[in-house]
Each structure stands twice: as C-alpha cells, then as structure tokens.
Design a protein that fits this description.
By secondary structure, the chain is an alpha/beta fold. It contains eleven helices and five strands; from the N terminus they run βαβαβαβαβααααααα. It has a five-stranded parallel sheet with strand order 2-1-3-4-5, with helices on both faces. β4, α4 and β5 form a beta-alpha-beta unit.
Length: about 220
C-alpha cells in the first residue's frame, strides 16, 4: 500500500486519475494538489509519501523546472510525470531529469496500475511502444549537471532564461513580466552566475542543451 500525492490542476482529470488508480493499485492515502506551490507544501507536510504523480503544466511550474527542482530536493522520492504530450524528446528529457516514469494522460487504467507498481518496485517505466527508444538513450552527465544548476534558478529567473533563448530584448522581457529593465538585468546577472557563463550567447547555448519548455503560465507571442 502506498501514499500518493497527485498533482494536477484539472479537477476532472485528477478525479479520473485517482479513480483509475483505485481500481488497479492499492493505496493507503491520496493527497491532491492543484499547483506547484501546493505540491511543495504537501511534500513538506507528508514526508512519508511513497510516490508523486506530477503534471508538468500546472500553475507555478515552469516546464521542466519543477521536476528538476523536486528531483534535487527529494532525491529518493519516485516522481511519475503525467502528461498529455507524446513528444518523444519531451519524454526523453523527463526521464533524463530523474522521473521514474512517464505516463500519457490517454493511458488505460490497467496500464497506469502497471506503471505505478513498476515504480514502487524500483523500476523505470515508459509506454512499451517507445521503451526501446527512450531507455536506450544515455543520460549525459553534462546535461544533468546543467539541470542541477538550472534548479537553482527562481521561477522568475527561469522565465527570463527562456525568453533569452527566444531572442527577446531586455525591454520586451520587462514589458511581458511587468518589471523594470533594471530588474531584468539583475535576473540576467544572477543567471550568468548560477550557470557559470559570461554572456547571452553562452546562456542560449546552455539552455538549448536542456530543450527548456515555455513557462506554464505564459503563452509566448512574438513582439
């Protein structure tokens, strides 16, 4: 029997997921959260949780940043990413950044049960149809080291980092984030320091290695 934290901001899907889990997987408790902040609070309150089911795209979570941060903060907690995406590159990154499993939101309840059971038994799990493509990929240590550095960024700094990879100017970033250009410059300086780079070009090269996703609470529009 396992204690689960189910983190997803869509109540209907969260309820359907919990129902599916209850039919195929024995649990002793299920804690629900609907934002990244609430998830962090739940993890602190329930330090005995056996498993975290995490939606990458929820309020407060910036693409892969949440997963990277949680993996660093809770190195032994199995994290299962639940996502509507079926992009192979996204799945590879999810697993490279420390997830124990990737489960598509379209997965059959029986498949979800198998995945969770595998993770509880200490195994890694992805859909069988793509297992050979994902699991044969070597996790490159430089990328994992870089992910650890990115985990030190604040959510606001992550947004600035992503906008830099999109080629945005400081004034565009300031306008979109409703902050001053001086604050943007301060964030960029902090990003340089944390990532160990000295200019914007190096930042972009580093960020592209991680294939960072857009912040979950932003829809990027060319300006």
């Amino acid at each position: 029997m396992a204690k689960l934290i189910v983190a997803d901001d869509h109540p209907l899907f969260r309820n359907a997921l919990i129902h599916a889990i209850s039919n195929t997987f024995v649990t002793k408790a299920t804690i629900e959260t609907d934002s990244f902040e609430a998830t962090c609070e739940a993890l602190q309150e329930h330090s005995d949780a056996d498993l975290l089911l995490l939606d990458l795209h929820m309020p407060g979570n910036c693409g892969f940043l949440g997963l990277i941060q949680l993996r660093k903060q809770y190195p032994v907690l199995p994290i299962v990413v639940i996502s509507a995406s079926d992009d192979l590159d996204v799945i590879k990154r999810v697993m490279a950044f420390g997830a124990s499993a990737f489960i598509p939101k379209s997965a059959h309840p029986a498949e979800i049960g198998k995945a969770l059971s595998a993770v509880i038994d200490g195994e890694l799990w992805v859909p069988p149809a793509i297992r050979s493509q994902v699991m044969t990929q070597q996790q490159h240590q430089p990328d994992l080291d870089l992910a650890s550095k990115v985990a030190e960024l604040t959510p606001q700094q992550y947004k600035v980092l992503f906008y830099l990879t999109e080629g945005w100017l400081n004034k565009q970033i300031a306008y979109d984030l409703h902050i001053s250009e001086a604050t943007v410059k301060a964030h960029i300086t902090a990003i340089f320091r944390k990532l160990g780079v000295t200019n914007r070009t190096q930042v972009v090269i580093q960020a592209q290695r991680l294939q960072l996703e857009a912040p979950a609470d932003k829809t990027l529009i060319a300006q």
